[in-house]
Design goal:
The protein is of the alpha/beta class. It is 45% helix and 12% strand. The structure holds zinc ion. Zinc ion (ZN) is lined by residues 60, 132-133, 139, 203, 205, 225. It comes from Caenimonas aquaedulcis. Pfam families: ZnuA (PF01297).
Amino acid sequence: MNHRQRFAALATLALIAAAPASHAALKVLACEPEWGALAKELGGDLVEVSVATTALQDPHQIQARPSLIARARSADLVACTGAELEVGWLPILLQQAGNAKIQPGQPGNFAAADFIRKLDVPTQVDRAQGDVHAAGNPHVQTDPRNIALAAAALGARLQLVDAAHAAQYAARQSDFHTRWTQALARWTQQAAPLRGTPVVSQHKAFVYLYDWLGLKEVAVLEPKPGVEPSAAHLQSVKAALAATPAKMVLYAAYQDARPSDWLTANAGVPAVKLPFTVGGTPAANDLFGLFDDTVARLLAAGKR
Ligand SMILES: [Zn+2]
């Protein structure tokens, strides 16, 4: 190797070494799969997304384990639901991580529910008897109109925390908005026959979905959000359904289906599993699949 070749080789090596640093992706830690999926839609290759929970875990009940704390330590942005969904674990996670960028009030701390009108907000805050929805219903991701609101807010936040790539985030946001608006119109039209359908919920997981599609919740299997139904409570629901029949009982993919299955066996109400978030069912492989599959499952149950 002569002098010039050696210099060229060294220069190439230097370029390779420098490349990852100059394109360092923004590290996003999403609390739930839907916000991880949204960050990927809006950030593409500009973001490196990691998700704290899977669709098969109850987001109310997560442990702030060391591997999660390590991810929070290096995150540039946390994207969560808020509305106290993560109250049992996120504050501990943020405190243990000791990362100033993602603390509450910082641009690196994003809570989707801050940008969405919450339903089931109690007039009096009461956490008695284990109510896990004391700050209003946190399951905002079950209405695609809320995903649109969260997308606008998260897109703006990405532009703020990674200003060097603001134009690219803005372009991706606009593209997502176009595709989402088209899909939303399609889902709304497909689901129109479901309007007014009486349903039972296992957990109050779908109030935003009902609000969007006009489904009527006539009973809930959990006596309070987060409290497992007793045999006596299930019997009282069954008795109430004799007067007000329901077409289906809905449960989220992460939940133990036994209370819903009990209602199927004892009151003849078919149980329907909904993905609830990205990854909850094989077809719910991204945000679009989440609502394609949710609407398809509801329509299939509605025809029975
Ligand atoms: Zn809940």
